[in-house]
Amino acid sequence: MEKLGVEPEEEGGGDEGDTEAWAMELADVGAAASSQGVRDQVLPTRNSSSRVIVHVDLDCFYAQVEMISNPELKDKPLGVQQKYLVVTCNYEARKLGVKKLMNVRDAKEKCPQLVLVNGEDLTRYREMSYKVTELLEEFSPVVERLGFDENFVDLTEMVEKRLQQLQSDELSAVTVSGHVYNNQCIGYKTAKCLEALGINSVHDLQTFSSKILEKELGISLAQRIQKLSFGEDNSPVIPSGPPQSFSEEDSFKKCSSEVEAKNKIEELLASLLNRVCQDGRKPHTVRLIIRRYSSEKHYGRESRQCPIPSHVIQKLGTGNYDVMTPMVDILMKLFRNMVNVKMPFHLTLLSVCFCNLKAVNTAKRGLIDYYLTPSLSTTSCSGKHSFKMKDTHMEDFP
DNA sequence: TGGGGTTAT
DNA sequence: ATAACCC
Prior knowledge:
- Residues 53-162 form the UmuC domain.
- This protein is α+β, with helices and mostly antiparallel strands.
- The protein has helices at 16-35, 38-42, 61-69, 91-95, 104-110, 123-137, 156-165, 168-173, 188-196, 202-207, 210-217, 219-229, 258-279, 310-315, 324-338, 363-372, and strands at residues 4-5, 53-57, 78-82, 85-89, 102-103, 115-118, 143-146, 150-154, 179-180, 245-255, 282-292, 301-307, 347-358.
- A five-stranded mixed beta sheet has the order 7-8-2-1-9. A four-stranded mixed beta sheet has the order 5-4-3-6. The chain has a four-stranded antiparallel beta sheet with strand order 10-13-11-12.
- The longest helix is centred in the last third of the chain and has 22 residues, at 258-279.
- The radius of gyration is 25 Å and the shape is globular.
- The structure holds a DNA duplex.
């Protein structure tokens, strides 16, 4: 019922061999957990909804990726820098007092020997992240991603198979290395709400009136967090599958002209188009996001989105036609819709997002596209996504 | 505070 | 379109 947390056994990534060996142990950990003491806590009854869920949390993931790319960094205190922040660091650096999300100034002061690598381009981290997820998916397809460095794996089926294979004497020799996952720290806004209600601890939350909490927070959130306060989290593991959106963003001190904005947008767009091309699916919506200076609001982002015209969608991923020009035009329209360029403005962030992704390879769209735009059958992106409509029969379409 | 992601409203 | 949440 509850999610079972396993402390980081290994930092993941690694070379393939290590990672695989480590992953192989996951099923054993799960089997151990359900056969031994933890069972009484995790699986109070062997009812049909009991699940064995392993939480794989990779620590200082970006730093690990950097150390794998450049082994010379392995024995040095290493920080990964984005703008003027050290977003994460390895254990060497931690020992010397560097913390996550620490200012570069403070970090250097604490640890003058700190080696910094720039981690603003997430490409390699993203690729590694999906490698880890794909590895876990070999054990069970039910893997839910949380950020780039956490995965929840539902191992119920696998554990049940293993338990059936074990003899009873082997079963009693198995030991447990997991623990019940019940620590939680509830989001910023909700925390503020709870504070206002005089709820400051897990115990406060456990004993607080359900009715009042439901009135304050809404029934959905109230019931969920109160169950969480008892360590109960029966939410299913939802397989993440391929991403639902692609975005690239850049923050900066100041952007105050349309030309400047256009240049930044073009950069973001170029990277995004590469990613979309590799993915093989096609986005049907674009969004432009900005953050304005001042307002000092913690969450002051604004966005405008629109459908991508179908003739532009068709050019996406073909790599040969100029899709930049029409896309930039669209994005600049969205830009001017948000920002009055005749008035002074000051932006500190621009982001472009592709979402509403649809497979091209399937369903009726493919058939329609084929007859309407014969050029599509000669696309050349990665090859593996090309398809031959000539072999397609009507039975393939509902 | 970065550069991402998700779901709910 | 925004707001909240996660890392």
